[in-house]
Amino acid sequence: MTGTLVLAGTPIGDIADAPPRLAEELARADVVAAEDTRRLRRLTQALGVTPKGRVVSYFEGNESARTPELVDELLGGARVLLVTDAGMPSVSDPGYRLVAAAVERDIRVTAVPGPSAVLTALALSGLPVDRFCFEGFLPRKAGERLSRLREVAGERRTLVYFEAPHRLDDTLAAMAEVFGADRRAAVCRELTKTYEEVRRGPLAELARWAAEGVRGEITVVVEGAPEAGPEELDAEELVRRVRVREEAGERRKEAIAAVAVEAGVPKRVVFDAVVAAKRAGE
């Protein structure tokens, strides 16, 4: 019989948030694959548990090479526990490759639910939570970051991002540029930790605050795009949106179609606005 892969959520801050089953699985597993074995040692000491199984590292640098080894263990009947530094494995953390490989071979995969920075930030943000998108980390390069943001400029669901503290001000400024300075957002810092802070406000205001320097683990929640009707977007704004998409690499035909969907107007209306703007500039 094949074994079982267990994905275990770990505390994102307060160790008291660890689910009881986490200690049980740590003590029971034949193999414990950890993103950082030193952090795992601190976690097991805090929980008062000693893993009986073999402990191996499983992080971005060795994920591709180690996945086949862990699959062999699973095929041999082992119970493999996967833990990352904080939160749920595979959510912006190592794990997806192993889960996909296990599923492909009909190996059972289960989970120990645990704390989630995404859901915690959503709940604390004060923004709509009935529909949301998790976008993970944005690209580090400014141009790529702007391009990625433009892809979701018309997204009406609430958006959730992870970000490094030293890039937060640039990211918020880019969001203000693409989404609009007045778009509501919340910056959630050090969730469940001693210095937890949730700063809410318009993107431009949050960008100015972040420029002073921010520390800690960061999750950013951004309000979705407002519904727009034909009367809310004039020709100049339609043309601007098409140009933004063209600068991001889209062909004009595709950009016009996308803007028409965002604005809730026929493609012909956007096309005519673009043609008129071109003639006015000649």
Explain what you see.
Catalyzes the 2'-O-methylation of the ribose of cytidine 1402 (C1402) in 16S rRNA. Keywords: Cytoplasm, Methyltransferase, rRNA processing, S-adenosyl-L-methionine, Transferase. It comes from Streptomyces filipinensis. It is built from 11 helices and 10 strands. The longest helix has 15 residues, at 267-281. It is an alpha/beta fold. Strands 3-2-4-1-5 form a 5-stranded parallel sheet, sandwiched between helices. Strand 8 (184-189) and strand 9 (197-202) form a beta hairpin.
**Beta strand %:** 15-25%
Distinct helical segment count = 11
- Could you give the distance between the termini? 74 Å
Structural class: alpha/beta
Q: What is the multimeric organization of the chains shown?
A: single chain
DSSP, total strands: 10
Q: Give the uncertain stretches in residue-range form.
A: none
Q: Spell out the helices and strands N to C.
A: EHEHEHEHEHEHEHEEHEHHH
Q: Fraction of residues in helices?
A: 40-55%
Radius of gyration from the CA trace? 23 Å
- Describe the strand arrangement of the main beta sheet, using strand numbers: 3-2-4-1-5
Shape: elongated
- In this structure, how is the largest beta sheet organized? 5 strands, parallel
Mean pLDDT: 93
Enzyme class: transferase
Protein name: Ribosomal RNA small subunit methyltransferase I
InterPro entries: 4pyrrol_Mease, 4pyrrol_Methylase_sf, 4pyrrole_Mease_sub1, 4pyrrole_Mease_sub2, rRNA_ssu_MeTfrase_I
Family: Belongs to the methyltransferase superfamily. RsmI family.
